[in-house]
Write a structure and sequence with these properties.
The complex is a heterodimer. Chain A is globular, with a radius of gyration of 24 Å. In chain A, helix 3 links the parallel strand 1 and strand 2. Chain A is an alpha/beta fold. By secondary structure, chain B is of the alpha/beta class. Chain B has one domain: 3-Layer(aba) Sandwich (Rossmann fold), CATH 3.40.50.280. Chain B is 39% helix and 17% strand. Chain B has a five-stranded parallel sheet, sandwiched between helices. In chain B, helix 2 packs across helix 3. Chain B starts with 7 loop residues before the first strand and ends in an 8-residue tail after the last helix. Classes of the chains: A alpha/beta, B alpha/beta. At the A-B interface, helix 4 and helix 17 of A face helix 1 and helix 3 of B.
């Protein structure tokens, strides 16, 4: 039996009354016209003046909305949501050396953060050691420099790795960094079966948006599948991919593009894991997502609700998953860095608060709130504390975590959720027709869709059609602000430390381990040559991040930015 | 030689940072304003950037960087331009720069630094006023 929410007679009556009300509205506009020619979301989706039951008259409560923890999970992946356990407050942190970042981790934990998230510097993200000529001037600037297992040990010193979950934003070298994490945890006496955390490990969105590029798409995906396979078998509490819309959005995508391209990346990983011979219900429960929470409040809430419903339907219908956990779109959220302004930076606290509120109402599992100075630099302690306190105030004072999915049934939010899903499904059909995401990337399709949106938005800002306070409304200058300084001297110290570490290694053992890694990279079939065990041995034998990544680059070749605009 | 050619601009991203939204938006805006634009893509070394600038015979280089590594890459690029007798190529920077770094970058010959919030129209206007086609190299 269906569970339509309005009777036909009710809809008929509302339709008549709505027409009457519209006449009143037009009349009222004669006196005071609307303040904008066109009302639209930050993604430029046009919205109406009013939403009513007419906008959701076709919806079926059980099929489309339902209950938290139940298919299609529109209202949340857990039955109890924040009534039982709040989202994990997980601040993205990394600066300078491993010791400095470890100090920041403890500072955040001492102020009540409940999970860790590691930001690596650019050389680490790109698979280069600090002593690489390509790494000049970058050490510790946008995150922490990690070259060796010794750095990893220092990074997580005095943190209980079986109690705290750690997220690591690392992509092409994800397998290597994860191997260092596992190897270090084992050296410290922890069991790999009890380690919980996430590696971002989403290579597709690198080609699409974030541009941390190392290997071509096919071997990149092969390594991702190796980690999923290894995690399924050996590290069962680990999320081996964080399928990320965040960077797609930051690159300029609309909310629908973020949703569609990310879900399609997810589809691609599931297909590839199935091709490897894995059973969908054995691995899909460890796939997680990562969304941006941008400045348009309702659009973001609708996007997150739509994401859950879409993923559930895709996993059930397209991949025939049976286990409800395989259908759950569990996700981390970060507030939108690109919505912040260098002008009057203190206003960024208000932007971040609004975006965090949307993430909470959108039902996130963990959340990073940007610091007011993140538009300039890695945050200062002062700024990061305000950002963490923002989450705590929302969690404990405001009351928004008391009721599950409180915006369900809002005519606007439900209609917008539907529209997000419909428009994202259009993209999914298009990507299917193109032959999948790798083919689409090779045709530069998602990249150019995003570039078009970014350019359109910028033009709208310049014409004053999209308001940014401090930029095109109430414009203001960039003030001098006390920001964190990274001492350029740490680059020399890190290189010195790396060279001392290299001196101490057993060269024979190291070479043997790297040879085994190379053998597995070259070996066929790939399902008999998972790189993870070899990587763990290699980093235990002292292989640096770059030494492992150089094996990858030599075997698989490299990928350079196609430089389209 | 009354037939003045169009101004050629290289938009380049030095270093390992992949934040290319700004660079690509600027490249489009300059192209739409009638300039010839070449874009390097991400992850270029100073050597690659200067080589491309010379090969493409550009009149201006726009460097986009958000990683904070400008204090290494910008001086290196200026040095390489001098070594190649190409210091008349106008070099500008865009991205995130600590305020105290800006005068230092101008001292080494960077003509202008554009910071967050800079308007596309203002950048285009700046180029029109400050960049002329280079005299063909001998």
């Amino acid at each position: 039996m269906g569970t339509k929410m309005f009777s036909e007679s009710a809809i008929e009556r509302i339709e008549q009354e709505y027409k009457e009300w519209l006449k009143e509205y037009e009349k009222a506009l004669q006196k005071i016209p609307e303040r904008l020619e066109r009302f639209s979301t930050v993604s430029d989706m046009e919205v109406k003046n009013l939403y009513t039951p007419l906008d959701i008259k076709h919806k079926d409560f059980m099929e489309d909305i339902g209950f938290p923890g139940c298919y299609p999970f529109t209202r949340g992946v857990q039955t109890t949501m924040y009534r039982a356990r709040l989202w994990t407050m997980r601040m993205f942190a990394g600066l300078g050396t491993a010791e400095q970042t470890n100090e920041r981790f403890h500072y955040l934990i001492n102020h009540g953060e409940t999970g860790l998230s590691t930001a690596f510097d650019f050389p680490t993200l790109m698979g280069y050691d600090t002593d690489s000529p390509l790494a000049r001037g970058e050490c510790g600037r946008c995150g922490v420099a990690i070259d060796t297992i010794e750095d990893m040990q220092k990074l997580f010193a005095r943190i209980n790795l079986e109690e705290v979950t750690t997220s690591m934003t690392i992509n092409p070298p994800a397998s290597v960094i994860w191997a260092m994490y596992i190897a270090n945890a084992e050296n410290e006496g922890y069991s790999r079966r009890k380690l919980g955390g996430t590696i971002q490990n989403d290579c597709l969105k690198e080609f699409i948006a974030q541009k941390t590029l190392m290997l071509p798409p096919d071997p990149s995906i092969r390594l991702v599948v190796d980690t999923v396979e290894f995690g399924t078998r050996e590290v069962p509490r680990w999320n081996t991919i964080s399928i990320s819309g965040y960077h797609i959005r930051e690159a300029g995508a609309t909310a629908v593009q973020e949703l569609a391209f990310t879900i399609y990346d997810g589809i691609t990983y599931v297909e590839e894991c199935i091709k490897r011979g894995l059973n969908v219900d054995d691995f899909a429960g460890r796939l997680s997502f990562f969304w941006n929470s941008h400045i348009d409040f309702f659009e973001e809430i609708a996007k997150m609700r739509a994401a859950r419903r879409m993923w559930a339907r895709i996993m059930k219908n397209r991949f025939k998953a049976q286990n409800p956990r395989s259908m759950m779109c569990r996700f981390h959220v970060q507030t939108a860095g690109c919505s912040l302004t260098a002008q009057e930076p203190h206003n960024n606290v208000i932007r971040t608060t609004t975006e965090a509120l949307a993430a909470i109402l959108g039902g996130c599992q963990s959340l990073h709130t940007n610091s007011l100075d993140e538009v300039y630099m890695i945050p200062s302690e002062f700024a990061v504390k305000i950002a963490l306190r923002t989450q705590q105030i929302l969690a404990y004072e405001v009351g928004v975590a008391n009721v599950i999915d409180p915006l369900a049934g809002s005519y606007y939010v439900e209609a917008l959720t539907d529209r997000m899903e419909e428009e994202a499904n259009e993209y999914i059909r298009k990507l299917d027709e193109m032959g999948g995401m790798v083919a689409a990337i090779e045709q530069n399709y998602p990249q150019m869709e995003i570039a078009d949106s970014a350019y359109r938005f910028q033009q709208q800002v310049e014409r004053g059609e999209k308001a940014i306070i401090g930029i095109n409304m109430f414009p203001s200058d960039i003030p001098p602000l006390e920001v964190l300084k990274i001492d350029p001297e740490i680059e020399r110290l890190q290189i010195e430390r790396l060279h001392q570490f290299k001196e101490r290694r057993n060269k024979v053992k190291l070479q043997k381990a790297l040879d085994e890694l190379r053998r597995r990279c070259e070996g066929k079939p790939c399902w008999e040559n998972n790189v993870m065990p070899a990587l763990i041995e290699a980093v235990k034998a002292g292989a640096t991040e770059q030494e492992c990544c150089d094996v990858y680059r030599e075997v698989f070749g490299t990928y350079t930015d196609p430089a389209s605009f | 030689m009354g037939n003045e050619r169009r101004i050629r601009i290289l938009v380049a991203k030095p270093g390992l940072d992949g934040h290319d939204r700004g660079a690509r938006v600027i490249a489009r805006a300059l192209r739409d304003a009638g300039f010839e634009v070449i874009y390097t893509g991400c992850h270029q070394t100073p050597e690659q950037i200067v080589q491309t600038a010379l090969q493409e015979d550009v009149d201006m280089i726009g460097l986009s960087i958000l990683s904070g590594a400008h204090n290494y890459s910008f001086p290196r690029i200026m040095e390489l331009l001098r070594e190649n007798n190409a210091e008349d190529i106008v070099v500008v920077g865009g991205g995130i720069f600590p305020l105290e770094d800006i005068p230092k970058l101008k001292d080494i010959g960077i003509k202008e630094i554009f910071t967050p919030g800079a308007k596309l129209d203002d950048i285009v206007k700046w180029v029109r006023e400050n960049v002329k086609p280079r005299k063909a190299a001998a």
